[in-house]
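worker-3 :: picked DUF2237 domain-containing protein
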Amino acid sequence: MKPDDSGGSQRNVLGGLLGSCSEKPMTGFFRDGCCNTGDEDFGSHTVCVLLTDDFLEFSKIRGNDLSTPRPGFGFPGLKAGDRWCLCAARWREACQAGKAPRVVLNSTNEACLVIVSLDDLKRHAIDLN
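worker-3 :: tokens ->
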């Protein structure tokens, strides 16, 4: 079940309504442009990030190649500058390794706070005044 089927809207880590992360490329576990999550999202694709070459290489080395297109799966391949709903555990791993991409807090789902700290997210935020 998609999380907002109950009529409720998911919230971001700042307590507001969850904003769009990216529609080009289309992101999110549900490929709805947002970092919505639900019970079937075992990877918790909840952190909206601005990808960097450094992070994409880190992820590839760790076994998750996000830069190579996979047309059979409708996956265009990602590049630096794209926004993407990243798995919270992968973001935490990258953060611990000093490779974390910047975060869009208004588009990052509060569900990620089970895995990553708000302080860490804020240190990497691109939309914090």
